Amino acid sequence: MNKNAVLLCRASDLKQIIEGDSLENQVKLGEYYINKQEDTLLRTFKLVESGRKAEREYFEEVIKFCENPKNKVDYILFKDISRFTRSGGQAYAVFKSRLNKNGVDIRDTEGIIQGQMDTMEHLGFTYNWSKYSPSEANELLAAENAKSDVRQILTKMIGAEINYVNKGYAVRPAPLGYKSIKVHTDNGKRTIYVPDEKEALWFKTMFEMRSKNIYTDSEIVEKVNGMGFETREIVKRDKQTKRIIGYSGKCKLTVKMLQKYITKTVYAGLFYEKWTHSQPIKCEFDGLITIEIFNLANRGKVYIEKSDSNYKLILNRKSIQRLKNNPFYPYKRQVLCNICKNPLLGSASTNKVKKSLGYYHCSRGHNYLSIPRGDLHKTVENVIKQIKFTKEFTDLFKQVFMDVWEQKRNENIDQSIHKGDQVKEIQVQQKTILEKIKVTGSPIVQRALESEYDELQGQLALLQGERNDVEDEHYKIDETINFACYLMEHPFELFADITNPLNQATYFSIFFKSKPTYNDLVNGTPELSWIFELSKNQEVSKSYLVTPAGFEPAVFALRRRRPKPLDDGAKRG
């Protein structure tokens, strides 16, 4: 007699679909079984959800479809009992009982489940107690084995992952800013995170800008988005079948996202999660930023405390050490009070509309003196713009500087010529070997000559690389000379190009012989440093150009910074 069947195909997760036991394979097995029985397939259900949960959303839809008498379902078919449930024999018995009460049998393609029998059938009678399933014991055993398999698999897998996390290895997909790689360790081949070439720079910028406490979160977001920030693409899948139905992600950074990222300890090289018992664990890889920068960036909301090799995470830390050198007030140690001649202090106050305003101030034994932060900074900038080296001093500096760099340039040219001669010598040797190879008839001699030629080729490549490096250095020397001359005529460029306010304050102090008061800066009467005083009031000689302590940072900056190209007319002033 022809019967109506429902086919149930289930996978536990997406990985199982991709790597094996696919839904399509279960469909083929089920359709083959139903066609062989010459039955009718009413509907095929494809589910991707765990079989060990007592309450399963989509599985319950299948059961209700079968229980509905309007659908006239005679039996439900699946590959094996583990595809029906992994919750054990008790749960299996409950589902089977529900279906049997509505006249629906259950079957599997592996043939473990047998049809019901009736011990009173030969007498023409039937009772509830006379019906039984001859395979019921095997069915319950298979259901219990399925549950036991899940327990063993998850215990082994999750237990190993917990151990590896507490040893500092990664077990989850890499967060934004990192990528995962496999490395050989004493614990076998394990996964760690390494900086992603593109994404890591975004997070370094976030933390560093926020740690300085001079940028608003909106300014940081604007800066990082300008660097090309976007979240990774996310594949959207159907909840029931897990088939791809679209894509999302690739979002720009927002203030809320920034504030969430900043609290993630993984960027400081620490795991902190449930599996670490809510304790920071040092990762077996370096973070994108240091713990110090992490703490400064979080401003007490999340604070990592290190003691020897142990770490502790403190949330909402009330007491935060004040910054001795606060980048928001870089001149509080450089500019003096007009009244008491002590260095000005710097702090912020909140006005009536809850807006934070920064001030330089002093009240040491006198009336309170307050100067808006922006006014003082603008005054400093205006003063520095007016400072110029005298032509006499500039010419002498160029002469001394040129003497030193001319010597370096000549040494560089000599090295380049020497390397070029060595290259030509090897090329002559190679030409001679090639001529010998042409005339010799012995394969053994040819192989020996070819080996000698290859060895010379290696030496040639090395020398050519060294020669190119020397020539590149020659161009760098020219650029450095040009840039040094440019800075001597534009000293403010050196000051203005410093992105760190604290470094800028250090350069500011170079211009003055003694620390100026705010009135000195406003009136344009600060006492200039010995260089500017020397260039105006004293006879200049080369002996005075021995750099005193305090001027060294500017000289070293000339060596570090990338020179700007100038035209020929600007090279010599």
Structure description:
The structure is a single chain. The chain folds into three domains: 4-148, Rossmann fold (3-Layer(aba) Sandwich), CATH 3.40.50; 178-315, Hect, E3 ligase catalytic domain fold (Alpha-Beta Complex), CATH 3.90.1750; 391-571. It is of the alpha+beta class and 573 residues long. The strands form seven sheets. Strands 2-1-3-4 form a four-stranded parallel beta sheet, sandwiched between helices. A three-stranded antiparallel beta sheet has the order 15-16-17. Residues 533-573 have low confidence and may be disordered. It has helices at 14-19, 23-36, 57-67, 81-84, 89-101, 136-166, 199-212, 217-226, 255-262, 291-298, 373-386, 391-439, 443-489, 491-496, 501-510, 518-523, 530-537, 552-560, 568-571, and strands spanning 4-11, 40-48, 75-78, 105-108, 117-118, 131-132, 178-185, 188-195, 233-237, 244-249, 270-271, 281-282, 302-307, 310-315, 345-350, 356-362, 369-372. The protein contains 19 helices and 17 strands. Helix content is 47%, strand content 16%. Helix 12 runs antiparallel to helix 13 (443-489).
